[in-house]
Amino acid sequence: MSHKSKNNNFKKHNPNLATFLSIILAGLGQIYNQRFLKGSIFIVIELAVLITLLDSINFGLWGLRTLGTIPGEDHSIQLLVFGVLALILAVILAALYAFNIIDARSQAIKIKNGWKPHGIKESISNFYNYAFPYLMTVPGLLLMIFVVIFPLIFSVLLAFTNYSLYNSPPRNLVDWVGFENFTELITVPIWQDTFISVLAWTIVWTVTATTFQIAVGLFLALIVNDPRIRFKKLIRTIFILPWAVPAFVTILIFSAMFNDDFGAINRDIIIPLFGGSGIPWLSDPLYARAAIIVIQTWLGFPFIFALFTGVLQSISKDWYEAADVDGGSRLQKFRFITFPHILFATAPLLIMQYAQNFNNFNIIYLFNEGGPPVRNQNAGGTDILISWVYKLTFETNNYAMAAVISLIMGLIISGFAFYQFRQTKSFKEEGEL
């Protein structure tokens, strides 16, 4: 065949026909483009889906839409689970189908412009060279879908149902209620009072406890890093010891020490010095909150201390010598040299400390199980949002409202983290510091 006739064949190649064939059956467009291996793979996938998965996907989407129609026989939560899985699978298949159409059309345009399709052997070689790394990420992507995305979608959808102890399958069907749960959270007095109180305390707890542990860790790191301090290794070892002890052990010990009746703090310190019956650490919300802030400061400062110590040792002494030449004071050197370098190196980790304490379930529950009780509220005096969600889920079985609060928590954390990460200098070029 002459070169001229080949060019005519290329020009006659129709991208619209390739697109149309790919819409009719995935892979036909690739076959038309003479990409036989890729087209065969798409055809096999579509036929396999149509034969084996189509009915299951339809059933799952029906269950997701209705949550069942026959009480006692249809299990709404199981249908919701199957529906979410069917929805995820449908999205993945739709993405593959769209990719099939786009791929067929783009390659048809390239062929029309003179590109010659590769043979099977060369296609396999190109696939190995270019697509192999992406193929290796597929197991991790699938794991993320079923470990992260699936529970997240399920929790979000659960917030728009009336799933609770008094409306549980299979005896009763769960219904979609729209934004009714969100409305109740801000209009029904007991939910409104509890939510505002717990949210306010969660914010105060997060900011206060985290800031204290960062401040104590920074203060101790600055002192130990001073060249006039001797026995630095011993001092650092002592300060890091609280970090070496498991946190739940430390919390339980502190819970016993703060006990109103037999705790060492009341019995051996408060009562001998001030008399009376001691401080109600566990039965008064104000004192209980103060106690867990102190405990979290104790638990959190060793990590911050170790982190800041490493950063301080990495700062070049030339900076401080230049500041001495310019007559800079200790405060000025800290403000313009030490502190900016610390923030530049540790800002993401410090943001994570705030996010972690926002959801710090362990200390709240192990210290006093979120108590003491508060009148006209269904959460305890030290409950934060995450411990309140735990109680709603496992103690009162109010799953829908727990999902609503979890969704609000996720939005708060995501918004805070996104804003802070965008603002921090740790994600900018070093020359911009």
TrEMBL record:
Signal peptide range in chain numbering: none
Annotated GO MF terms: ABC-type maltose transporter activity
Membrane protein topology class: Multi-pass membrane protein
Domain ABC transmembrane type-1 residues, every copy: 199-420
GO cellular component terms attached to this protein's record: maltose transport complex
Record-annotated membrane-spanning stretches: 39-64, 76-99, 141-161, 198-222, 234-258, 290-315, 336-355, 399-419
Keyword Membrane: yes
Keywords, ordered alphabetically: Cell membrane, Membrane, Sugar transport, Transmembrane, Transmembrane helix, Transport
UniProt superkingdom: Bacteria
Main localization, broad class: membrane
Pfam (any one): BPD_transp_1
The keyword Transmembrane helix is assigned to this record: yes
Cited PROSITE patterns: ABC_TM1
InterPro entries xrefs: MalF_N, MetI-like, MetI-like_sf
PANTHER family: MALTOSE/MALTODEXTRIN TRANSPORT SYSTEM PERMEASE PROTEIN MALF (PTHR47314), MALTOSE_MALTODEXTRIN TRANSPORT SYSTEM PERMEASE PROTEIN MALF (PTHR47314:SF1)
Similarity remark: Belongs to the binding-protein-dependent transport system permease family. MalFG subfamily.
Protein name as it appears in the record: Maltose/maltodextrin transport system permease protein
Organism (species): Saliterribacillus persicus
UniProt lineage: Bacteria, Bacillati, Bacillota, Bacilli, Bacillales
